[in-house]
Amino acid sequence: MNETKKDANIPIIQDMLRCNAACAGSFAPKEFRCEEDAIDWLYRNLPTVRYAVKQTVNHIFSNGMTTGNDEQDERLDAWLYGYNIRGVTNYSVLENAIEEAMIYGKCGLRFLSEEDGLLTVNSRYFNAITEDNEDYYGFKNTIGYLLSFGKEKIYEVDRKEINFDRAAYEKTGVIVDKEKKLMILSKETFVSVRENPTQEAADSPLSYDRQRLELIKRIYERLNYDIEYDGPGRLVLRVNDHTGDIPEGATGASEVMNQSSTAQESRSKQIRAEATGLAKQIKESTESQVITVSNIFDKDITHLPRVTKATDLMPLLDNAEEIVAQLFAINPVLLSIGKMNGNVSMEKVIDNAMLNTIIPIREKYATQLSKMLAAHLGFEKIYFNKYELKQKIDENEQRVKIAGIAKLLKDAGYDEVADGFAEQLKQEIDPEKSQPIKKKKKKTLFGRKRK
User: Fold this and answer.
1) Which of 130, 192, 199, 330 has a Cα at 20 to 30 A from 138?
2) DSSP 240
3) Which residues contact 177 (CB under 8 A, 6 or more apart)?
4) pLDDT digit string (tens) for 88-135?
5) How much is the pLDDT for 446?
6) Is residue 192 situated within a structural domain?
7) Domain with 423 in it
């Protein structure tokens, strides 16, 4: 190819490259305005995430909440199952606060009054107000919280000129600006429920392990794309060597004008339009469809097979649920997923998972909620009820069955056999105080003598 041909084809090739990106479909990296939007997308699209969060919250609240005093618990239950100003139970608001904290790293919880209850505030709409500690230095004290009214995200509100409304403060006790964009709340009426209580900033589990999450996301996207578009894959379309050339021996004014920049741009647009149409035809074609190619393209079309196929990565998707469980530090057995090897007691596995996973999570959130709630409701503290071990419950149920059998035998006149069951029960309850079970050789259960 001579220099004239090469120069004439460069803008055409550039246009086709731009067209290639535009014609490639919706399978492209997504851009998000902020971290919360990216996390929201992951929560709504990744498999098992919503299920894992919901199930974990269910486990956290599975034993209810208590003050440690039976009489006070009645008043606490009445408030928890009472309705807030929006007609939602305070119990549901607390569940939602922990759920959002698990997803986004933090969630605001606002106490209106004992009668009007609680409200949650999404992480996008509040920030902590801090000041330098002047006693120890090197860190900041949280002195309150700045909230957006919800019309704009907290980082989108212009704070250069804020005029607070003194009259509104004297009337309601809430510090708000005159334009009703921002408000300031104290730590007595607002708490930031955080996944990581050691820092004020949001620390979402979905911001970790991004490599595996991104891989799972892309595999599912690719599979969905392949199902929607059953196309041939990558195709290379070559522009005909003579497209855009100056004809040899051209001397006429019209022929020379035909090679002007305006004319070349016009031909370039025409080629780009044809390339776009052809790409769309191929992408949406079926097995029986006939596709025609104009003479602006070379006669040969090159097919580039895929190097990596989504189906080759299917084994990774088999572990996607366990990866999500690991992300939230939840034992997969609590989500009814994962594999167990060997002959193990399911009750022991669940007890171990609850004690080593859910109980620490309960304590983490209870310590954040207790101070504000207890102070407003008049309790010393509020925390989650103790978890009853399933293994112990099953053992007690078994003992009740044995005691019932012993009583039936006693009533039927089989005193010695009943005593044997009673002694067996003693050994299980307190092996040190029980006596060895004496075997009777004279009679069996049916009263017959043994030989």
Assistant:
1) 192
2) P
3) 162, 163, 164, 165, 183
4) 999 999 999 999 999 999 999 999 999 999 999 999 999 999 999 999
5) 44
6) no
7) 389-451
* 407-414: long-range pairs with CB below 8 Å, 24+: 414/445
Which of 254, 284, 305 is the endpoint of a domain? 305
Q: Which residues pair with 185 in a beta bridge?
A: 145
DSSP letters along 250-289, please?
Answer: --SHHHHHTTSHHHHHHHHHHHHHHHHHHHHHHHT--TT-
- 399 part of a folded domain: yes
Report which listed range, 70-84, 223-237, 256-270, 286-300, is most confident.
Answer: 70-84
Q: What tokens were used for 16?
A: 């086709």
> What pTM value is reported for the model?
0.70
Q: What does the alpha-carbon distance between residue 223 and residue 45 come to, in Å, rounded to a whole number?
A: 14
More confident site: 213 or 282? 213
Hey, CA dihedral for 360, 370, 134, 169, is it positive or negative?
positive
Would you say residue 217 lies in a domain? no
Residue 221 lies inside a defined structural domain of this protein:
no
Lowest-confidence segment of 42-51, 211-220, 232-241, 327-336 by average pLDDT: 232-241
Contact call for residues 116 and 207 (beta carbons, < 8 A): no
Average pLDDT for 309-318: 76
Tell me which residue of 43, 101, 107, 30 sits closest to 324, measured CA to CA.
43
Domain total for the chain? 2
What ranges in 23-69 are assigned the alpha helix state H?
Answer: 35-45, 49-60
Do 225 and 185 meet the contact criterion of CB atoms below 8 Å apart? Answer: no
pLDDT in tens, 164-177: 888 887 777 788 88
For residue 106, give both structure tokens. 């933090």
